[in-house]
């Protein structure tokens, strides 16, 4: 049993036929070869898979692709403008906001959501609204500083 699906990812339209059990995460990684979005826990606990769907932060591992027919999805691959990094990506570099880097795509997507939601006015507020994104290396001070800088 399969279903047709049309999604726009980073401005590019994709027409797919998918198993209704396919997650947005597996669609991105396995069907569209967009592997910047990471699979950590695959059960909604780590935030490594965070993407923006119609501007909202979503854990792509918990989202069924067929629920998002017609949606606009932004992944880490769609954040830079050509060769120019997004100011939040620059801020992550300036603040050493990663160590192993596995959570970074999700942190940046979540940070973008945090800023656009207006939840980035202080370090405390950023920490609270980014609490769904786990960093096992403990790079939180840099992550929070980077989001705060980009929110200015
Ligand atoms: Fe989706 Fe961990 S992989 S929340």
Overall body shape: globular
The proportion of strand residues reads: 15-25%
Q: Which sheet architecture does the biggest sheet show? A: 5 strands, mixed
Secondary-structure element series: EEHEEEHHHH
By helix and strand content, what is the structural category?
A: alpha+beta
Q: Which CATH class of the largest domain applies here? A: Alpha Beta
Q: Helical proportion?
A: 25-40%
User: How many structural domains can be distinguished in the coordinates?
Assistant: 2
State the CATH architecture of the largest domain: Roll
CATH topology of the largest domain: Ubiquitin-like (UB roll)
How are strands sequenced across the largest beta sheet? 2-1-5-3-4
Task: Work out the helix count.
Answer: 5
What does the radius of gyration come to?
15 Å
Q: Low-confidence runs (pLDDT<50, min 5 residues)?
A: none
**Would you report the number of β strands?**
5
- Mean of pLDDT: 98
CATH superfamily of the largest domain: Beta-grasp domain
Bound molecules: FE2/S2 (inorganic) cluster
